Amino acid sequence: MVELHGKAPYKTVLIHGGPGAVGSLKTCSEELSRLTEKGIVEALQSQYSIAELIEELYLQIIEYCQEKPTLIGHSWGAWLAVLFAEKYPKLCKNIILVGCPPLADKYVKEISLRRLRNLSGEESKIFQRMIDNVATDEDIKKIPSILEKSDNYYLESSEKLIVDKADNEMYNSIWNEAAKLRTNGELLTAFKNIQSKLFLIQGVCDPHPIEGVIKPLEENGIPYKTYILEKCGHNPFMEKYAKEKFYDILQVII
Questions:
Q1: SS3 25
Q2: Residue 81 contacts residue 64 (beta carbons within 8 Å)
Q3: Of 59, 68, 130, 175, which one is least surrounded by beta carbons within 10 A?
Q4: Do residues 191 and 165 touch, judged by C-beta distance below 8 A?
Q5: Is residue 161's pLDDT more than 80?
Q6: Number of domains composing the chain
Q7: 66 band by pLDDT with thresholds 50, 70 and 90
Q8: What CATH number is attached to the domain comprising 175?
């Protein structure tokens, strides 16, 4: 299942995060297609294991892409892009990691701390209760709007993270498996094995610390080029002060 934006040939594939945030890159796909006047494949995930997601992405790419595409992965989608490229190196030209989660466990605690620093008052208390696993049902209902504030620097009033189908079952299944790959080192092994050029785009205010990606890459001798966006959080395609530069960077790479 994909959404196609623009006309063939399709040389760029966008891979959403979550896991399970189906449709969250729709606006980004539309805008990138408009700016580049090129076809964009928005790959939608529907499987409940990493192996199945890799095979699903393989089928999407061989059906719609006539040549090796550039993969743009957001958040969890950044990991999926790399895991795919490790298995199918001949089907991937470049990989662009956007808002990539840390590649080593020692940086994970920093995510919650950075989110808390972006919150105040009752929202901070609610988020702390979630961290402590004592959140009430009312607290849980407020978490999406709290994360929108904690994870972004400044969203334009018209910008919302559109999700066609937030699949919690997919999130729990896939993220549990993905976290184990980070812990046991298989994720970094995948980064070492890829043959594609690697690009990293990260906001300074992203709760995912940039050093959690850069330092593991450097320590393992993995080449990459990085673009750091000021006044930007986890979703640069929605950020008022970073969106234009974000799309400029994408156009240069692809």
A1: coil
A2: no
A3: 59
A4: no
A5: no
A6: 1
A7: confident
A8: 3.40.50.1820
